[in-house]
Amino acid sequence: MRLKVNLMSLFAKYSKEDSEGFTHLDHGRTIKALAEHLGLPLERVKIVTVNGQQGGLETLLSDNDLVYIFPPAIGGG
Amino acid sequence: MGNGYWQRTLRVDLSTESVSVEPIEEDDLRKYIGGAALGAEMLRRELPAKLDAYDSRNRVIFATGPFQGVAVPGGAKFSIVGISPITGTFADTAAGASWGPSLKDAGYDVLVVQGRSDRPVYIKIIDDSIEIKDATDLVGKDSYDTVDAIHAENEDPKLSVACIGPAGEHQVAIACVAVDKHSFGGRCGLGAVMGSKNLKAVAVRGTKNVPVAHPERVRELVKTHFKKIYDTTVENKFRKHGTPGLCETAEGLGDMPIKYWEGDTFPEGAKKLGAPNYTQVLNAKPLPCKYCPIGCHRDVEVTSPPEYKTSGPGPEYETLGMMGTNCMIDDPKAVAKANDVANRLGIDTISVGAMVGFAMHCNEKGWLTDEQAGGHDLTWGNGLTLVRLTEEIGRATGLGGLFKDGTLAAAKHIHPDAVDAVVHNKGLDYPAHDPRACYSLAPTYATGTRGACHFRGPCEDIEMGGFYMPEVGIKEGTVRFFESDNQSLVAVKCQDLGVVANSIVICIFMIDGGGLSLTETVELFNAVTGWHFSVEELLRTGERGFTIQRLINLRDGFGGKTDVLPKKMYRSAKEGFRAGKHIPFDKLMNEYYELRGWDEGGVPTKETLESLDIIMGSTI
């Protein structure tokens, strides 16, 4: 399936977008599988949104989903 | 056997130029620890209700805790406590660099300054030698030149200097206390209180070592925790990028202030202001406080364009939020320059950003007269205006002069509708986190004892995955965005943690970002003091300290009626992550009051006070 994945801030370097800005993943996979595919440190994948809704590692993805993965908030205090 | 305290308060009365040393009872230390909680209890005991901040009886209390005598990671902090000229009630602010450990090394836990000198002075403390020195030659010097001048005059570059800039001298209400050209006790205007006392600086150096209960154990824990925090923050990039690493996460989740709280999204701004762009553009490097394994402060350098040329401590996330996205400014160089101007003049960068954003907002609404605008181009996003207006605010001239007593006071002079547009609690401008994104911030700000403050309760970082407190049941998933469950619990526990951190005193980034657990913090605390606190007991001292601060708020006229959100917080976003969401404020506050053991008017019940072993005196 084809996803629009926005890796924010310090996660940007993990991007595996194609030339059209899409990330490809097998159908029926989760955020966890996406994070592993990208090589993101799983313990730091805590804040995810899928199509504007908060998700988590077990959130199931569908074709054309819009995914944002944020590094945790450090230094907000 | 020592306990990490000298149990000594140094008191200086500037009216009489008298100096005394008073004992601190161990019972008070066990109840209030030090720093912000002990300082609050001293204010409660010593000052009457509704005291004007510039009354000579007001105190400036510089308070350490048990962690300043040993090289605890993040322990180079101290709290400053007094009545704020912005809020008119309790205020505490914390700073780093090396001033706190220096006071401890001189043989004191707390310095209380009261009275008013009839001439500009500074206090010099070297162990048992206390001098009140003439500061006439320091008048008008900025907060960096003041440090250099005191070092030169005393031929003693090891003096740690907490001072005010020109803003404090002129009682600009948002004047901060600047420490060692490095760290700033920014919020609530206690620099203006120093100015009202004609106190330009306190310079301190010590040669003593406070005894601790278990020195070997302390050394072992310090070594272990230093390495752990260092490794953690190398791994999570906090060391490399500092707090600017937060920008894109905060903006993406609707937490960053945009267009004076009326904008919804500004992703390109957050990207340019945040890491890694910030680190590259400003050539930023870690600028650690003493004993710090993280170095979250940034040392930056801008060589061009000439109008933004600067070097020194760079803007933090809060400043990037308030001076940057809040004003629709996306140029980190402009923010770095304005930050430097504010630091040198000695004003709080959060409130400066709020004021500039508010001025731009008023301009857009047509509320400012041409005469008030003073020739400034107040178009959103104008970096040069930010720099120039920052200078005016610090010097209380031009349009900046309108803001001398705070944003709320300025609004009253600007337009009848402007007052309701100010985003504040108790008169203190909101910092750069939005309760509409992180609901736990709503009760946190509404009940903030020093006004709206994220840092006396870093609950937003729990919501955004930064840290947890499993020891008190706050884990990943305890709160979720836009769901009210447990939000008030997180607010309460984070507020209590905030008081603990500012009383021990330890930089909260050791816990929030550095990975130091509450259990490890308590182990260290017990090794220093020789006491046997549990995590729950230590947080209980935080709750007690918070309640003391609340009691001061109550006697100063605040309470349930001021536990509110500003009008703009009821406006929901039209786009972005928090589009269409509304804070369930009444529900959150009902739960918050219940958790706190407060009645419907926001007053702690008799049972609550008894359970916290708080004794009501005649002044409350």
- Quaternary arrangement of the chains shown? heterodimer
Give the number of domains of chain B. 3
CATH hierarchy class name of the largest domain in chain B: Alpha Beta
Major beta sheet, strand line-up of chain B: 2-1-6-3-4-5
Rg of chain B (CA only):
22 Å
Q: How many strands of chain B?
A: 17
Largest sheet of chain B: 6 strands, mixed
- The CATH homologous superfamily of the largest domain in chain B is named Aldehyde ferredoxin oxidoreductase, N-terminal domain
Short structural summary:
The complex is a heterodimer of chains A (77) and B (620). Chain A is α+β, with helices and mostly antiparallel strands. Chain A contains one helix and five strands; from the N terminus they run ββαβββ.
Element layout with pairings:
The complex is a heterodimer of chains A (77) and B (620).
Chain A: E1 2-7, E2 23-24, H1 31-38, E3 47-50, E4 53-55, E5 66-70
Parallel strand pairs in A: 1-5
Antiparallel strand pairs in A: 1-2, 3-4, 3-5
Chain B: E1 8-13, E2 18-23, H1 26-32, H2 35-46, E3 60-63, E4 78-83, E5 90-95, H3 99-105, E6 110-114, E7 121-126, E8 129-134, H4 143-154, E9 160-163, H5 166-169, E10 177-179, E11 183-185, H6 190-196, E12 199-205, H7 215-235, H8 238-241, H9 247-252, H10 267-273, H11 277-281, E13 285-286, E14 298-302, E15 310-313, H12 317-324, H13 332-345, H14 349-365, H15 370-373, H16 383-395, H17 398-401, H18 407-414, H19 418-421, E16 424-425, E17 428-429, H20 441-446, H21 459-463, H22 487-504, H23 518-529, H24 535-555, H25 585-596, H26 606-611
Parallel strand pairs in B: 1-6, 7-12
Antiparallel strand pairs in B: 1-2, 3-4, 3-6, 4-5, 7-8, 9-10, 9-12, 10-11, 13-14, 14-15, 16-17
